[in-house]
Sequence to fold (646 residues):
Amino acid sequence: MLTRRGFLAASAAGAALGTQVLGGLSRAALAQGRPLTFCSWGGALSELEKTAMLEPFARSKGIEIVHTSPTAYAKIKAMVEGGTPEWDLVDVGGRYIFQGADFLEPLDLSLIPNAKKLDAGWVTPKGIFTSTGATVIAWNTKALPADKGPASWKDFWDVKTFPGPRGLYKPFYYNYEAALLAAGVPRADVYPVTDDKVKMALDKLRELKPHVKVWWSAGAQPPQLLASGELAMSSAWSGRIFAGIKEKAPVAMTYKDGIAWGNAWVVVKGSPHKAMAMQAINYAISEEAQTRLLDVGTYGPVLGAAAAKGTADQKTWMVSAPENARDMLIINEEQAALYSAKYEAEWNRFQLS
Amino acid sequence: MSAAQNAPGKPASGTPAAAAFATLFLLLPAGLVLGAAFLLPLARLFGLSGSMPAGVLAPYLELLGDDVYRKVFFNTVFFAIVVTAVTLVLGYPLALALARMRAGWRALFLLAVLMPLWISVLVRTFSWMLLLERNGPINRALIASGLTDTPMSLLFNKTGVLIGMVHVLLPYAVLPIFGAILRIDPALLRASEGLGAPRHVTFRRVLLPLSMRGVATAATFVFLLSLGFFITPALLGGASEITLSMLVENLVNERLAWPLAAAASVILLALTLALLAVAGRFLSPAAVAGVGR
Fold:
């Protein structure tokens, strides 16, 4: 009873029931009454998006923006199907632009003129990337000194040279790429996704599975589990590890063999604030906002003009800096959406078995 | 209700029809709340589980016919059985000790048993995470005492789940057994001893049979609560300790497979109701109502 009141009740049932109960009232009136709501993943990323992007934007427009976390795709689905979106602007994993296309508004680029200044890869019809990060190999510095850590996914798989419990992300996302790189597939051949490559990835993961103690689902888990010594090594979101290092946690990371990605902003279908949400995207990718990311030091800018202003020191942590980017694989979100959806049953079978 | 003046000491309503009406009237608020907040969503859940294009039974066949999902059912029942057994073994002596204490001590110890119930399960589970960590206090104590050289793996596996669940559910086992022991007439125990029975015979032939109702109630409570447990296995378990309620969460939030999630919930509900029906044969409502007395 007490236990059932857990996450489920809070998320799915809550959302579903909420839309049920409110269904009879005027939905438009209800939605108009609440301020523009932004949802992201929490932690270092939400902090960055709030201070560098959305608070200055809200001040300039004289509006209030509500910040919430974490992003949950089930909630977006429930909101759109229920007809009362409670979120307007959401930070999603890039694959969701494609996987969740039915639940997203197409972006009106006339409201987002700054999009022209970005590299074309950051702009898609239903989502625009506003900052960069990577899924990296991180480790506990008491188990492995910072300079003697792993430098590739091959090392991550090598439990003899680098012993200790591992952590990996719970969905197939990132693991497909990491496993193929560990299996020796060259970066250029990771995509396109094929049945054979998926099988190779799953076989490689099956090899490591006995050593994977935690399949993490929240970005806060890897730095915490690494710092406490519960894990020796884990995949992790780069900004979370940087935040941990700043707090003097015994963690380290490498960009070598990292999987680079962007944080995508999307507008929820049926949002009553969609025009304002798109203007917020426009501000987030402006040079003014993007330059602020340099001083925060967790997730980097997508705008080349802002990245160019970084000092040598700042470039050491920026995903887009050439000396880092050359060691990394850039994730193909459309392909990631494909393998996430198509091989979902196989992945769940792998996880449960 | 009734116009007739009742004699003192008689029930308020006169005729049987009026009494029935009064009963219905009293049940109305609870009925409305249950209907709107429980029965209606439950009906929708059934509807959702049957909404797959492949057919009404498709999600049930998928769940029951797949060995991967069968492992989840097995995990769920396994944890419920082990947790029930362990809480009974730990709870019975505790309940017996409580029943034999003097009033002042008993109040203090009862408070100690009840206190955890007032703390959120989430808080208790997180506390266990800190205690069971690789470098946590339990492992440090074990290493300092020389019992083990390397830290024991207590978290994100079966051990962690069992420790957490037993701790959370122990009060639900202690209280019904305690209540049942208290209701036993002490004269019976004295009579047994007076007739020359050794203490273990008195325990086995008098105390234990007379407190069996409480044990059965405790077992039912703990078992049913274990079946639907979510937070503790989700936080303390690893990838292979997935239970039915975790599967439902995964289907809802990650896979967005809602008909399948609804079907899994219906199966969990059916399992619970079936067990209640079986347990109902052994439990009188009075025994259940006596819990915590």
